[in-house]
Amino acid sequence: MGDYVKRREGCQRRKPSQGRCTAAFMQGWASGHHPTNESVKKNPNNQMLGRREIKDGKAGAYTWLTYQQVYDATLKIGSAIRRRGVNPGDKCGIYGANCPEWIMAMEACIGQSITYVPLYDTLGNVIHVQFSQFIAELGFYLFIFTHLHTSRISFASNISIMKSIVSFGKVPDKQKETAEELGVACFSWEEFALLGDLDENLPEEEDRHLHDNVHQWHNGRTKGCHSNQRCFHGRSLVYGSTSSRDRQSAHIFDQIMETYCIYCGSSIGFWQGDIRFLIEDLIVLKPTIFCGVPRVYDRIYTGIMDKISASGALRKSLFQIAYNYKLRNLEKGLRQEEASPFFDKLVFDKIRQGFGGRVRLMLSGAAPLPKHIEEFLRVTCCCVLSQGYGLTESCSGCFTSIANVFPMMGTVGVPMTTIEARLESVPEMGYDALSSVPRGEICLRGSTLFSGYHKRPDLTAEVVVDGWFHTGDVGEWQPNGALKLIDRKKNIFKLSQGEYVAVESIESVYSRCPLITSIWVYGNSFESFLVAVVVPEKKALEEWAANNQEKGDFQSLCSNIKARKYILDELNGTAKTHNLRGFEMLRGVHLEPVPFGIDRDLVTPTFKLKRPQLLTYYKECIDQLYSEAKGTKA
Prior knowledge:
By secondary structure, the protein is α/β, with parallel strands linked by helices. Among the domains are: about 30-225, ANL, N-terminal domain (Rossmann fold), CATH 3.40.50.12780; about 495-630, ANL, C-terminal domain (GMP Synthetase, Chain A, domain 3, 2-Layer Sandwich), CATH 3.30.300. The chain contains 25 helices and 29 strands. Helix 18 (about 370-380) links the parallel strand 15 and strand 16.
């Protein structure tokens, strides 16, 4: 790839060369060849979509639909959509958990030049907000696919803008009656497919390119992104395929991965939808590529470390010897398979088997992966790991680290073939894009960027300036051309003594404390110190209680003053170990027994903290912490 650096107007810019592979794919898409159509021609009998068969309440083996079977079903669903009065350029909603029907609904819309609007089904009660604000504001919902038996759609407030509802499963009689009384037709997936005609013609190729926008739900808020289909499918080429589904299809990264899977003729297996059985699903499915967000990898890391700690002195010593040996070889430049084949079989194979035993590549995105976790996974999982960076507005990933290039650890890698990137100085935060170590806000330009926020030209104008999309993320160019994420432009505040706090950076440090699972650090310009809301590690807190003769369940322990002091001391010990400054230490913590959840609107679907919502939710706790720390009454 090209690695030139151009200096101008307080920014540093990196522009990659155009990949021949991507160019060929884009040419094929522009000429009207849909990736699904091409894959069916090449791989009609390949397994495409699979789910575990449930018998007597127990999950068995995966059952699969072939590419030809999925294609035929998709044509029928697309035909049925048209017969219900939805035409090219109209909008169709998809709201539900991951399943084969989700993919077929998406492909049916694409095949008929219908804009599909994915919505997260993980938002719980927030779905009422989505439908009352977002859908009503857009005023376009003509059709919706959903898991009707589990959805919380309020018919009374939204029924006027829906024409038909198709359930991925069976339609409960009561809900069907309610909908039909209000003039909305309800179908099960099987019933709806019978309305379609397998031999009905698709739209003419020239028409298919007139209506090629996708409305993508963005970070669980009422801000829809318009993404062109050409850039959407062109972007998919730069990713690897995946066989394990552990995230929402409503998320842009997930859609890109699935699109590339289909393009390559790969198999997509869906989990049961219960996090308790995810590892079991992995063992049965045996995926070759595993995708996860940092929170998932952090939980995996913690679980493995707990088992290692409990394995006895001899095994712990052997593990550490193997770990250090392989790490040194990786640092010397040896490839993953060359670094330590002996210890891979003797020591690390059990960890590999926990992912099914066949994973060749791990991908991480949505947030920076802590360096110690990335190092651990690279050493112990016997496969390469690539960390990437992207946004809904950039049609998912625009940076990725190169496999087996160990010096890229801790970075999100280099720009992909369809994007230009530059850093823009942020003087108020002390970031200079033209310094010897270039730091600044990440700005992007390229054919895969979104065309704007739906009906929000004001928001679009704020972030797109002279063709450059301003991400709000702060990066640092590395000497090898890779980019390191170091901050978030909006997530910085000043304490009363004038010190600036980059809160995400210090939260990353505190997250290394093994006694906690999540942390939200808070401060403002009216106070001189920081406080935090912490979700403790249940097992660790209960072990502390047993060793210190403290009684009570997990919830009551979180209210225990001694427990709070214990967690606070351990957190500040972690801070000192990693050289945080005095004003970055915590003066008080509130222990929260319930994880920050999407259902309470405290995190995004990719588990990023929603700071304004957290402050609103925990306002009384924060006030109490400051009062206690200052010795005053709340």
